[in-house]
Amino acid sequence: MGTNAPARREPLTGGPHEVYFKNLSKQKQKEVMEKNGNNHKLRVCVATCNRADYSKLAPIMFGIKAEPQFFELDVVVLGSHLIDDYGNTYRMIEQDDFDIHTRLHTIVRGEDEAAMVESVGLALVKLPDVLNRLKPDIMIVHGDRFDALALATSAALMNIRILHIEGGEVSGTIDDSIRHAITKLAHYHVCCTRSAEQHLIAMCEDHDRILLAGCPSYDKLLSAKNKDYMSIIRVWLGEDVKTRDYIVALQHPVTTDIKHSIKMFELTLDALISFNKRTLVLFPNVDAGSKEMVRVMRKKGIEHHPNFRAVKHVPFDQFIQLVAHAGCMIGNSSCGVREVGAFGTPVINLGTRQTGRETGENVLHVRDADTQDKILHALQLQFGKQYPCSKIYGDGNAVPRILKFLKSIDLKEPLQKKFCFPPVKDNISQDIDHILETQSALAVDLGGTNLRVAIVSMKGEIVKKYTQLNPKTYEDRLELILKMCVEAASEAVNVNCRILGVGISTGGRVNPREGIVLHSTKLIQEWSSVDLRTPISDALHLPVWVDNDGNCAALAERKFGHGKGIENFVTLITGTGIGGGIVHQHELIHGSSFCAAELGHIVVSLDGPECLCGSQGCIEAYASGIALQREAKKLHDEDLLLVEGMSMKKEEVVSAAHLIQAAKLGNTKADSILRTAGTALGLGVVNILHTVNPSLVILSGVLASHYVNAVKDVINRQALSSVKTVDVVVSNLADPALLGAASLVLDYTTRRIY
C-alpha cells in the first residue's frame, strides 16, 4: 500500500501556551536580549533525521517559528528522511511550511552494522561545511539515533552549543550508549521525566542546565481533537473497520541481537495472522537488520494479506488518531511505551528494545517473546481494553518551557562544559526561573455536604483549594467534579505545580482497583455503581485513584501524620459518621469485598439505637455527629438542652456542637450523652485492639479531642493487659480527607517500579 500525502501540521497555539506567554515577563525577555546583544536573535539549527524524531522536534520548531523577534530557525534534514524506501518523509516537513536549508544524504545502504558506522562517518564528513555556512548559536539534537551522534559530535567539535532533547532515559540496545554519549557532548538538556532528570544529575551534568519539560510531542497529543478520526481510520485500514477493532504494529530490529529480533518479528506476524484482526503494519526503521525484517514481511505475504495494510510512513497527526482509537498496539517502538499512554490504548511491548523505559499501566511487557503462543496470549489479554490515560512523559506544556529555556541562554557564558561531580546536591534541577516545579496531586473530597478539590504538594501543603456544595444528582455531581478538576489543573501551571494524577476520597464502599463506588452511604445520594476513574481520566489525561474516605484518612496519617513510619496502626474518623482505616505491615487493608475497616459499624450493644446502616447498637449510632445531633434535638424538644450561658436563635438548627457546649457549661444530661458516646467508641476501639493489635490508634475528625480521654479510660478498664500499652492520639492533620486523596497519587506515582 502506498503512502498518502501528509496532513498539514498547524502551529501550536492557544491553550496552555497562551497562559505561558501571558505570564512570561517581557522585562525578563528584554534583559536576555540585551545580554546577548541588543538586536541579536538566537540562531537555532534544528536537525531531523527520521519520522520519529520529527514528531518530537516539530512542536519546538513551530514554537520557534512563531517568535521571529527572538529566534532565527534553520532546518537541516538528513538520514532516512531522504530515502524512498522509508517514505521520503522530508516532504511532511515541507508541507508543514518549514524551509529546509540543507538536505544531506548520509545513509549508506546495507542495513547492517557496518552500514550504520559508515553512515555516521559520511555525516561527519558532510556536516562541517553546513555548520560553517549556518553558524548557529545553538543546535537542537533529539534522542539516541546514530545520526544524532554524528550531529552532536560535529557541533561539539565546532564549538556550537548543543541542546539535547530526551536525554537521561533508559532503554535497551545500543541506543542507551548513544543517548548517554550525546548527553556528555551536550551543553543543555531537556528531559521528559523525573527519573530521566535524576539520571542526568547522576551523570554529573550541571543542574542549572537541565530542564524537566516533558515530551514535546505530548503538546500535540493532549490537544489532538479530531472529530473526523473515522475517515483517517478508513483511509489506512479500509471502509469496514470500527474503532477499537484493529491493531497497529510497529517493530524495529534490535541492533545488539539482530538474529533474535528478526525471529521475534516472524513470531509476531504469525500471532497477528492467527489473531485475525485488521492490522496496520509500519515498516521498520533504517537500523541494521531492517532489510531482513522486510524480507520476513514479504515472505509471509503481509503486503497482500486481506487483514493487513503495510505502509512505510503515516503522518504524525494521523498516526496519533490511529493509535488513539486502536484496539491495541504491538511491537517494540518507543512510541508504544511513551506517546500511546496518553490515550490509554493497550500496548504489547515485545523484547528488550525498551527495557528500562518508564511505562503506564496500559503496557504489557513480553520480554522473552520466544513463541507464537506467548504473543497470541498477550493479544488476547490486551486487545480491546481501555486504560486510564497516562501523563508520565508530559503534561502538554513542554514547548513553552523549552522556549523559555532557550531565551535564558547567555551566549557570553563560557562554552566549556562544567560537570558536577559527586556528591550530588539533594536539590534537583530547576526550570528557567530557578523555581522547582512541585510534584503535586489533585485531591478530591466528596463529603455529605461539600465537594472539595485541592492542589496538594509532595510535602502535604495544600497549595490551592476549591469548595462547592455537593450536588444531589449523579449527573450534576460528576459535571461539577470535572469542572473543578479542570480549573485546578489549569491553575497548577500558574502556581508552578506538576500534577501527577487525581486522588478521590468518597464515602461508601469503593473498589479501588477499578475506581468504582460500589455502594454509598445515605449521606450521598445517587452514588452507587459509579465509575469515577474513566470519565475523569479521559477528561484530564491523568491517572485516577479512588478510595473510601476512612481509608484515605489512614493514608494521610501514614504519609503526613502520626502514622509515618509506623508498621501497624488504626485511624478512626469521628465526624458526621464514623469511619476509619487499618494499616497492617505498612499496607492498607481493603478486604475481600472492599468492606474492611467499616469501623463505625462495629456493634457495641445488642439493643442500642438504630444506625443508618439498618442495624442497631453500632458505634456510629452512639458517637457520630448525626447521633449527637439526634440526642441534642431530643433534649431541646424537652427544653432540657439550654443552660445558663447558652442561647439559640429561633431559626438556628440544633447540632452536636450545642450538645458539647451544654455539657461544658454543666448540663448533666448532655454530659451523660457524651460519656455514653465516648464509652461506645472506646468499646469499639477495644474490639479493634483485640482483633488487629495495632501499636497506635489515631482519632481524627472534629469530635476526636472530645473522645480521646474517654477512649483511653475504656481501654484501661476493658482491654486485655497485653494491648493496654497502645498509644491513642488525636490527629494533627487539618484536612485528612484531602491529604489522603493526594497520598493515593503521590505514594503510587513515586514508588512505582516497572
UniProtKB/TrEMBL annotation:
Catalytic residues identified in the record: 549
Reactions it catalyzes: an N-acyl-D-mannosamine + ATP = an N-acyl-D-mannosamine 6-phosphate + ADP + H(+); UDP-N-acetyl-alpha-D-glucosamine + H2O = aldehydo-N-acetyl-D-mannosamine + UDP + H(+)
GO biological process, one term: UDP-N-acetylglucosamine metabolic process
rRNA processing recorded as keyword: no
Protein name: Bifunctional UDP-N-acetylglucosamine 2-epimerase/N-acetylmannosamine kinase
Listed EC numbers: 2.7.1.60, 3.2.1.183
UDP-N-acetylglucosamine 2-epimerase domain ranges (all copies): 70-407
Classification via InterPro entries: ATPase_NBD, ROK, UDP-GlcNAc_Epase, UDP_GlcNAc_Epimerase_2_dom
Keyword hit for Aminoacyl-tRNA synthetase: no
Family matches, as NCBIfam families: NeuC_NnaA (TIGR03568)
Superkingdom field: Eukaryota
Record-stated family: In the N-terminal section; belongs to the UDP-N-acetylglucosamine 2-epimerase family.
Positions that bind Zn(2+): 601, 611, 613, 618
